[in-house]
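URGENT: need a sanity check before tomorrow's submission.

F., can you look over the Thioredoxin reductase record below? I want to be sure the sequence and structure line up before it goes out.
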Amino acid sequence: MSETNPRDALVVGGGVAGLTAATYLARAGLDTLVVNDGEPIVRRNAHLENVPGFPAGVNSRLFTDLLSEQADRNGADRLTGRVTELDVLGDDDPLFRATVETDDGEDTVEASRVVAASWSDASYLEDTGVDLRAAGSKTYVDVDDLGRTAVPGIYAAGRLTEIYHQAVVAAGDAAETAITLVHDSGTAFYNDWVAPAGYFTDRGREVPPACEEIDADERESRERESREVMREFFAEPHDEPQRTHPSLVDDELGRLDE
Ligand SMILES: Cc1cc2nc3c(=O)[nH]c(=O)nc-3n(C[C@H](O)[C@H](O)[C@H](O)COP(=O)(O)OP(=O)(O)OC[C@H]3O[C@@H](n4cnc5c(N)ncnc54)[C@H](O)[C@@H]3O)c2cc1C
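Structure tokens as predicted:
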């Protein structure tokens, strides 16, 4: 497969940061593709206890499944593959071409903007002009306060930018980076809010861009659906084995047979 139409946004990496960025980008109406190879690092966690919304914690494999489902439901596409190269094609009008290695061979993806959320690989950024910083065995990407790299159109988010090594920090960082990208793209955007009917309009205001007003029926229908979806996800214990550090077991994903 070779994609011909440039995507609005390519997200490299489908961990906490990449999937959160994808949800925000897709909800803002951007045609978004997430390319992920390998496993989000949080899947090595034994029980995730500090992510908001899960008072007794949550299985970390289940947590990333939930993030994938959320990105999907909000309209992002996902592709399994490794980005090995990123070519900068445009200057004033940013355009990028990513080379992606998949199980079926080599693929290319073009996009107007790229979010690098690929902890711990920045090698495909080496020839782009992005500032990379080596620290020990790791390489980090330098960004401004809002996730922009030195190259217009390339953004970075999550642990790859050397933020604190915590899931919710990666998620928040990615949300901020995604909103920055949305603003930079010229897409009309106020806030990504779902408000009750009348919240804006009963005060004589238009519903601002990227906001939505929903009435009581719609709210009940969405709540019903959310309960059904969560019931299904939590109906059984997660069936994938615990992970550990890949160097400790003879398995590149670090799966522990229990
Ligand atoms: C054992 C362990 C326990 C932890 N426990 C907690 C905890 O209890 N609470 C907490 O808040 N945090 C915890 N963390 C930290 C937390 O998991 C991370 O800080 C956070 O998940 C980082 O998210 P990320 O999206 O930046 O990176 P990642 O989740 O690593 O996502 C990057 C993704 O990009 C993929 N990728 C890399 N290169 C490429 C490429 N070239 N092309 C395509 N895909 C690529 C990777 O395979 C991966 O799927 C734990 C971490 C570990 C290791």
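My own read: The mean pLDDT is 95. The helical segments are 16-27, 60-73, 167-184, 216-234. If you see anything odd, call me.
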